[in-house]
Design a protein that fits this description.
Blueprint (H helix, E strand, L loop, with lengths): L2 H11 L8 H12 L4 H11 L7 H9 L2 H15 L10 H5 L13 H8 L6
Length: 123
């Protein structure tokens, strides 16, 4: 069961609106992106006809760069990390969850949405 399905089921059970805020939407997008395979992306680009068909090796090489380029980028990144205080380091998951428990949006009624989109002065 997906996170979105769980959210909607909990909303129904708790008699709450099924809306999600921006933070939840970003988490759902991240979760969905993790399920997209490199082959799927390759097939999509080839299907558009924007780029010529390429072999899997060519695409992997273009996406990853040469081994020397990757090593150089890693060394550059390592140097940048030395300038960051260890007390400020956090994992990606911790960074994404930094505002857990903080209300990052509110649920609007249909009337409130109409008022925002079509203020009384424009009617």
């Amino acid at each position: 069961m997906t996170r979105l399905t769980k959210h909607f089921l909990q909303s129904i059970e708790n008699d709450q609106p099924m809306a999600i805020n921006l933070r939840e939407a970003l988490h759902l997008i991240r979760e969905a992106c993790n399920y997209v395979k490199m082959q799927t992306i390759q097939n999509c680009w080839e299907h558009t006809g924007i780029i010529p068909r390429a072999s899997s090796a060519e695409i992997t090489s273009a996406a990853c760069g040469t081994e020397a380029e990757v090593d150089e980028e890693i060394q550059s990144d390592k140097q940048g990390f030395h300038t960051i205080s260890s007390e400020h380091l956090m994992s990606v998951c911790d960074w994404l969850d930094v505002d857990t428990g903080i209300c990052t949006g509110k649920v609007l009624s249909d009337e409130a949405i109409v008022e925002i989109v079509n203020p009384p002065t424009q009617r």
